[in-house]
Amino acid sequence: MNSPPVALRKSTKRWSDRARPLAVALAIAVAVVAGASAQERGPTPISPADLEAAIAKLGDLDYPTRMKAGRAIRRAPGAIAVPSLLQAAREHADGYVRFKALVLLTGFSDPRTVDAMEEALDSPNDRLREVAYGYFEHHPSPSLAPRLLASLAKETGEFVRPSLVRALAALAANNPQVRDALIVDAGRGVDYFRSSVIEALGDYRVAAATPRLVAIAKLEGPLQDDAVLALGKIGDKVALTSLAELQRSGDQVLQTSVAAGICLMGQNCSSHLGFLQKTLGFAEDHPGYQELLRGAASGLGAIGARGNEEAVTILLDIGVPSQDPLRAPVALALGMVALRNTPVLLKVLEGRKDRDAAVSLIAEGFDMLEEDLEEERFFVTVRRSYWAAAENSPARALCEHLITKLDF
Question: For residue 15, is pLDDT > 80?
């Protein structure tokens, strides 16, 4: 069975009592945008009382209320927002508010954030630990390696452990003990957790994992395609022979991952992109090929996340006019590209005439992924790109559109 990356598979399990149906979310977004100034104005003055009220509303069950609160906090001056968010993350009675405060804190680039994240590593709140591990993936701290390795032996949270694994993978290049622990972990435990390790080894190009991944790739099962994609990301040509053999002997569904893996290695990428594009078209025209849809979309997403503009363009060209069952896996793949490689997505979107529909498709991917910390990082990147772009430029117009359409 061809399974999407672990971050995509999480999407089917992350819905909570605070999740909202996509149609409602987008309708609300349009209403809010119609009555708001989309233009970024820099930090917006806010009274301490209003800021505290906004933080309290981060846990409101009403989506427009939560969204409006988040927008106000993001635009508050850091000098007053950061202390309030730090306090909320540590002390607020509502665990969900603590989680959202910690996420929003990451957008201010304040040095005190590091201490808050280290404290959150020991929190009994799964959401806080997940945010902390995610933060240290993007802000690696070699001194934390022993602590993270100790957590690897005991962390069992379904959505927490994958974040821990990625934080460790970010350290693997310079820490043999971390590297070896992850390679061992790729071969043991339940498939869901093993999949997250395999994906992280590929994303962080841990070349020493190649022999273990080759062995996994040769075994039929749910981890086979994960290993193939990881080998492609690592790019060790030693594995190319194994992928070529799977191209000859693997089943129809596996061929999507093999094509993506070989393309990621830089081998005859154009023809493999063409194969994935045709596979999506075939699966759309012939109902009952959902595994092919997921495999082809996931493969194109992995290639796009590595900076390949053609792969992103293919996903948009096919996805924008599509309906389910094709639309969902394409939206997920584009959402992952947006989170893993925001610059390449911005570059491709800037030249598109169907920008509004394309952004709606990406919004659907975000809604399914429910990756709060990664989405916040995306938002920060877009806002920075907005300010870096020339006034009245296409780049600034695109960023303004994203800011309003995606509710941040």
Answer: no
Question: Are residues 208 and 260 both part of a single domain?
Answer: no
d(CA 45, CA 57): 18
Which residues, other chains included, contact 27 with Cβ-Cβ below 8 Å and sequence gap of 6+?
Answer: none
Domain contains 396: yes
pLDDT in tens, 333-387: 999 999 999 999 999 999 999 999 999 999 999 999 989 999 999 999 999 999 9
Smallest CA-to-CA distance from 355 within 41, 36, 363 is with: 363
Supply 71's token pair.
């927008």
Q: Distance between CA atoms of 132 and 139, rounded to whole angstroms?
A: 10
What CATH number corresponds to the domain at position 205?
1.25.10.10
Tokens of 188: 């043991």
Pair (264, 387) in one structural domain: yes
What CA–CA distance (Å, rounded) separates 347 from 316? 13
Total structural domains in the chain? 3
- At 154, list the tokens: 């005991």
288: domain range?
A: 253-408
Does residue 294 sit within a domain? yes
d(C-alpha 227, C-alpha 256), whole Å: 13
